[in-house]
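Re: the 356-residue chain
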Amino acid sequence: MKLHFPNSYAEIELSTITKNLRELRKRTSAEKILSVVKCNAYGHGAVRVARQAEPDVDWFGVASVDEAIELRMGGIKKSILVFEVPSVRTAAAYQTHGLNASVSDLTHFSILMDGTKYHLNFDTGMNRLGFSPSQATEVRKMAVANQRLICSGIYSHYSMADDPGSDKVDKQLKKFKDVIKHFEEVPLVHICNTGGAVHYDLEPFDMVRTGLTQLGYAAGRVQPDWLEPVLTWKSKVVQVRKIQKGDSVSYGGTWTASKECYIGSIPVGYGDGVPRSLSNKLKVSVNGEMYPVVGNVTMDNIMINLGDSKIQAESEATILGADAWDASKWAEEAGSNVHEILTGLSGRMARNYTDY
């Protein structure tokens, strides 16, 4: 939907992406960085984020062929790895747009067209997609038999590296090292997501994959102080009303005023990415002061308790980032993760980009 009158806007500082990537580069010995911009770059705008990141990264990663095509149409030239399972429907697109497929099943060798580049995907503990390590010999035979295709890389994915202290990370690494012994001639080897690179002193191989870090967040509970969030979400208080002691607010009457107070309404809700699980938990900033959201989050509005402050309608409200809670705090209070919070930002929000 084209927005003529958005209910809110995200301020996205593109130069902060560059800063975060360069800080990550200092902290890894891997030669290359792959920028993950799937799901519209976690709600930040895939093409704009990729254009900003391109000078400081070597590859891009996306979930689907459609996402990859969007990057190509947006002028992105560097190599793109598509994580989804290739199919007969998408096979030609890899060639047409110069994409790298993820091969994670023996049937994929026959699906892809001659000359297609691909990375082998081995499952070392995620149990999502990928070959089993026990298939390494069989996979190698199939790869050799299908030299009409070009094997450009091999990878796996840590399942528990978001925070430090997991012994499963080392177990996955050992499995991966056993696998790659069968593929010594493959030119690009990668397993590290940002958590694996930042929280663990392990071999990063040739490339580190980063999604959230370029946007200013780590994936887990531990948020490094060298990261700076890129996005701030703002709206306005559109109406201020006085309510009496005993009056309830919103659906279900989950909050009742203990005394006379002013209630401000902000025109964003779960239709725009505010989780309903943040009802009676979230705090937002208005004129530099933090105010609690009261009552259940609705599809189109959240209500804040202003107490005795009768602020003016049209006052700016910061909902996420800057002097309000960041996405990590949202995730903590909502029982979610930063990924879900950021990718949920949608609906009627405009995105304004700055490069200072």
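The two ends are 29 Å apart (CA to CA).
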